[in-house]
Fold Putative secreted protein (Por secretion system target).
Amino acid sequence: MKTALCKFLQVCLLISLAFSALKAQTCSFTDLRLNSQAAVNSFSSSCKTISGDITVSGTDITDLSPLQNIETMNGKLTIQNNPALSSLNGLRNLATAQHLLIYYNDLLTDLTGLEKLKSIWGTTHIRYNKGLVNLKGLDSLVNANTFYITNNDSLKSLSGLGSLETVSDILAIGSNKSLASLNGLTKLNAVSRINIGENDALTDLSGLEKLTSVSYQMHVTYNKNLTSLNGLTSLNYLSEAYIGNNDRLPDLSGLENVRSVYWLVIGSNNSLTSLTGLHNLLSATNFIIRGNALLTDLSGLDGLTNVGWLQISDNPALTSLSGLGTGTNAGRTSANERVAALTLGGLVIRGNALLTSCSIAAVCDFVNTNTATISGNGAGCDSQAAVQVGCSALPVTLSRFTADAEAGTAILRWTTTEERDAAVFEVEHSLDARAWYKAGEQDATGESNAVVHYQWVHPTPANGQNYYRLKMKDLDGSYSYSQIASLRFDGKAPASVYPNPVSDVLIIENSKEIVLFRIINTEGRKVYEAARVPDAVPVKGLAAGSYQVQITRKNGLVQKQRIAIL
């Protein structure tokens, strides 16, 4: 009996000691303020888990080592206004925190001392630290919730964030005057919101190459030296994007993998001349293009098929809606316009003083059955009625345009369902979908309400990627473009002549099979002709410009190829 009682008392004592030890390791504070080095030194070394808030703020604080046993902060740790503090080494065991705020510590050059910190599930602020050069010390941080890195005047690099994979709410990188690169975010793949603004030295978004998803919003604004969005090339899920007031941004290169967005606002980018980068964008629920001083057309929006609501406003240099969609139901427009296979759910075209023609297919389809807001543009596009008048001249209706590889040649096929005053289809070829040249032409039927099929053969496609489009010309000189079709030839393409462009000697392939070889200038005049063709033809004496090579082979095949002489 006595033995059993003794054992029971021993167990109770052990439990009591364990509870006391646990209690000693967990410390609770309502708002503990350590305002001097002496106050820091008096901090209890037994505290491993903190429940509550701690603020470290004092003019003489230089050493945080008395805090070295803290492992978990279930509250807010604020380190601010410490002008003598040059290191966070005293926080070497901190592994998790609810909130971490680091403000106005001018001697901090990095965040060394936080190497064990893996997770901050609340708010992280690293702001107004004048001497901070990089973020080394956060090397173990994998997940964050709300993360602000702002107003650190000397911050040159985000190195130290190499383990960060996700930010569940917002990542804000702003007003860091010396930050020239986002390199350091080597594993960041998903954020809910990301704001990049007022970073004066930032020229592109390199460093975000692993970012695939922005589930809520992306703001890229007021970066006055930003010249490219390169770095976003892996981004394939983007809900909302606001790209504005980036004074040197010429285009939107870097957004090539974005297929759809909910909100997209492109505004007040004073050097923007092209929307290149959005050519794979298929749909946008809301799309606003406004206040871009140098934007003259909408090239880059070729792939758009659906926009729930489109606003094009206050672009003072805009003269054309060229580029707004190039799908299969293309129509005819005025001489400087392109066409759209695009469905619109709502439309505002307002305050574009030089825009005189809005009669592209997508706009015509909308204004003929719906009410649009159209005002303040040039004559011809200053009201819905004016646009409807312009639309009455439409269309040539192209229902299909395809390119197929057959026996080393590119076979282009297209179908029209209606033609009015159509003159000719010019076939244009490109190797990069930017620089185009005329590869050949096919006469149009001219007047037809029936289905008409066409075919044209390009016998000399290049090795690699080839792009084709139709320039559909009418009798009055107006024209429109089809959608782009592409083909890839992985083997050696049966090129007839090379190099192209050429400056000295043009090499002729399989010259023994040729019975007639001609070079014709843009006026249709022969500048070279031979029945017996050498393997190389000197072209140095010909004027620089564009020419057509015509080749007749023994089998009767007539090939035409456009070349450029430099």
